[in-house]
Amino acid sequence: MYLQKLSLLNFKNYEEADLSFSEDVNAFVGGNGEGKTNLLDAIHYLSMCKSYFNAVDTQNIRHDAEFFLVQGTFNHENREEHIYCGLKKNQRKIFKRNQEEYERLADHIGFLPVVMISPTDANLITEGSEERRKFIDSIISQFDKSYLDNLIQYNKVVSQRNALLKQFAQARRFDETSLEIWDEQMIVLGEKIYRKRLEFVNHFLPIFKNYYRFISHGREDVAVLYESHLHQGNFGDVLKAALDRDRSLQFSTVGIHKDDLVFTVDGYPVKRFASQGQQKSFLIALKLAQFDFVREVKKMKPILLLDDIFDKLDNFRVKNLMELVSKDNFGQIFITDAHPERVKKVFEEIQVEILTFEVSNGSVVQQRETATHSSE
Amino acid sequence: MSTYSSKILEEAVNEFSRLPGIGKRTALRLVLHLLKADPADVEKFGNTFVRLRNEIRYCNQCHNISETEMCSICSDHKRDDSVVCVVEDVRDVIAIENTNQFNGKYHVLGGIISPMDGIGPGELNVESLVHKMAAGTIKEIIMALSATMEGDTTIFYLYKKIIQLNVSDIKFSTIARGVSVGDELEYADEVTLGRSILNRTPYENALVK
Questions:
Q1: What is the pLDDT of residues A51-67, one digit of tens each?
Q2: What is the DSSP string of A145-191?
Q3: ipTM, two decimals
Q4: Which one of A146, B16, B160, B203 has the largest count of C-beta atoms within 10 Å of its C-beta?
Q5: Contact between A182 and B194 using a beta-carbon 8 Å cutoff
């Protein structure tokens, strides 16, 4: 599966653009703020029905314009799939596949998978545990339909339980049976989710380690540790032990809604002790492992969107990484870089042909072929 | 300043617009309609609501709406005393009665447990149900509550109450959940279909009697 053509109208800083791509590696080069990342985001839109960066749809419309259109022609199992995405202010988003409108966006999401690696992924390391839970939840729910359903149910139960704990405190009374009926549902759902997460992390870890080893050539030892209150024993006992605390704090202090992933390099937490380059390598390895899972579930290679990936990485790691993603396990790739010479040089070194586009102030020009044997 | 030419008109409009689903514009249309109608009809209309509020009470057995101490269903001797169908509110009684498939009695809870909406067991008609169960005449309780988490939680709560009562000979059941009659399988959502498979019924039971 790959993207053949992309056309934009009033999308972010683009008034109009029409591009044709290589089936392999495509690079967008140009200065800051010229619109390189917006091209990746347009591709993300066509796959996931939303921006990777901005949750407010209408803010992706070019200033002073009333609507945007993003259209793409994909090659999917040797058939052309034309995807249309249109958004007009104050109207709902319209998605069409081969001229036929989707009734539900969910029917389209994931049909043409992409994986984006971007500097904003740093949130996974710097932000709270919610980001990390979201990361694994989004992967697990792709191959396990009941997982997401259980998770939604679980969160509802926790909200109801928290409301009940507040009422107990306000009314200065405590009713054990009322609490029990929520506890028992929380336990059943929570233990299911716990087992899935545990199983997933065990499966994910070797794949992730492998990618990290490849990028860093085995210079550091990394790990992703699954942290959960449920490690302490069965959920029922854990919940019972926390009852006094729950009552005095008036919310549920233990459960899988407090789960976290701990990232370490050589045994130390990434957040505090890893260098910027190590952190970046770590995030890239996480996303590449995610790529593996999506590929396995969808039985096709997702499009890989690499935003500003060279930044903060040394040449050694950049070269390893590019060598890796140019191999057969990966499909079509889009890369952005502010330094045209750098991207050219990297791919020349590993002898991979790329198609380069120069981006400046909302206009894109395809450069003449830069072949492997170019003599620069 | 009021936009209406009469204070009485304005008051009437305000009263109507207090009803759920009725805005100022609709309220005005209704009021003007009443102004044109026969005065006797309007008087009857008004009196109906005064009587509604004054004379209607709740059945002391099942908490259904009734004009007497005991509602017409509870006082019907042809109906089976030993089977009680537990429902959320009066609308559900009407819905089940319309099916003509149930000949037992009802118990109206008056809501379902949802702490987020401030509804706990204390706000519901649970005590009287427990009394009924303890009395020993009931053989089966059918839970006909919404298939939501709050509905399930309420069922679970009542189930615990029964266990605490130690009346082991009471059958406790819930209405079937799954693919609706006349539905095609491919349009059923995954959760519903999954549950239908888990709670499949022996074919003899599925034959309409």
A1: 999 889 999 999 999 99
A2: HHHHHHHHHHHHHHHHHHHHHHHHHHHT---HHHHHHHHHHHHHHHH
A3: 0.70
A4: B16
A5: no
